[in-house]
Structure formats: structure tokens, C-alpha cells
Amino acid sequence: MKEKSLKRGLLKLRITVIRRGTTVHSEQGIVLVMVLILAAISLAFMSALMLMVTSSAQISGGHKRFASACEAAEAGAQVARQMVDAQDAPNVSASLASFSLPADTLMSGLLDQYGTPMSCLDAKLKNGTSDWSATCNDSLIIDPADSATYDMSFDLGSSPTYSIYSKIVDTVQGNTGSDPNVEQSTGVVNSINEIPGVPVPLIYTIEVIAQAQTGTAEKCRISMLYKY
User: Fold this and answer.
1) Does any domain span residue 132?
2) Domain for residue 84, yes or no?
């Protein structure tokens, strides 16, 4: 009886030891932790990838909008050049009737060769900067909200529409503009035998800004030096 009891006790002891050993060497918890770590790494990688794609799209869109604004500014510079070319027309403002010309409504305090009062636009086109009055703005700053800070404005394009503002900020006086054989003061044709004077072009410094009407972020500025 004692031997049987002893054998049963040893059998129970062995079973207990085997069960305890199995519990100690289980790897199910480690596998779960590794899966969670890999899932976190994958999530972080996908988040970074989405951020890069979104940022790239935003930068690309910004470049396209800026390029469109600069194209509008270049068109505005061409119109400003045509404004300078139109100065020999009988009435400059009539040649540019489709544009807003704040500088044409401001008087410069100067008189032209016929004794007629000159607007700031005429003064900027035909006189050097040193002859301008304080009324004629020569600052490089153009504020769309203040019409006194630009000479001309107009709208260009659609969806989006750009507002163009331009201003002559400096004029270096010369003797060109009309036909070289015609005296500007009298309109008399010079003799063919007379030696014409050396032509000295007028040089204009013109500032142009193009700004989208839907937001101020899409803006481009051009500084132009034009010889007439």
C-alpha cells in the first residue's frame, strides 16, 4: 500500500512539473508584441507617405498659381509699354479708355508746350522725375486699395481673374518720341540737308503687379525698364 501511494505521488509530481514547464516556455505573448510593433511601424510609414504626397500636391499647385500670376503680370507689362507708346496720340486717356487711369485725374501742376495743365500721367510720360510734383506718386509701393499709388489698372482673364496695377516710378528725359524729321514744338519738317540731332531715348522704370481677385496669395510683381 505504501509503494502504491508513493508511485501515485511521484506521478502527480511529474505531471505538475511538465505543466509548469509548458507555461514557462510559451511564446504566444512575444508574437503578439511583435505584431503590434510592426503594425505601428506600418501605420507611421503610411502616414509619412500620405503627408509627402499631400505636401507635394500643395507645392505643385502653388507653383502653378504663381506662374499664372506672373503670366498676367507680363501681360500687364506689355499694356504698360503700349501706354508709353500712346503718349504721342492726341489724347492719351482716349487711347486707353477701357482702363482705369487714376493718374490721369490727378493734376501735376505743370503746363505742356501749349500752356495746357498736365495730369500726372502726362507729366510722367513727358517729363523727368525731378520735374514731377508731390501729387505724382513715384514710390515703388503699389497698394490696390489706394488708387493714388498706381497710374493704371485693369482686369485680365477669367477663372481666376487677375487685377493688374502699373505705375511709372522714374523717367529719364530724352528727345525721342516723334518722327526725327519733325520738330515737336512746331511740327515743321526739317530740311533734308540739316543734320539731325543725336537721338536720346526716354527711359521709363515701370512697376507692375498682378493679383488674383480670389486671394492675395497669388501675386506677382515685375519691374520693367523701357526705352522709348
Assistant:
1) yes
2) yes
| Distance set, CA 221 to CA 71, 77, 114, 162 (Å) | 10, 10, 37, 13
Cα(40)–Cα(54) distance, integer angstroms: 21
Distance in angstroms (rounded) separating the CA atoms of residues 167 and 36: 65
Residue 92 placed within a domain: yes
The grid cell for 24 is: 514557462
Radius of gyration of the chain from Cα atoms?
Answer: 40
Cα(95)–Cα(26) distance, rounded to whole angstroms?
93
In a domain, 11, yes or no: no
pLDDT exceeds 80 at position 60: no
Torsion of CA 128, 179, 75, 168, to 10 degrees: 10
Query: Which percentage of the chain shows pLDDT scores above 70?
Result: 71
State the DSSP code for 140. Answer: S
Given a contact cutoff of 8 angstroms between Cβ atoms, the answer to whether 126 and 112 are in contact is: yes
User: What pLDDT, on the 0 to 100 scale, is given for residue 73?
Assistant: 92
**Domain of residue 223, residue span:** 62-227
* Cα dihedral 43→45→49→52 (10° resolution): 110
User: How many structural domains does the chain have?
Assistant: 1
Q: Which residues contact 126 (CB under 8 A, 6 or more apart)?
A: 87, 112, 118
Cell of 157: 482673364
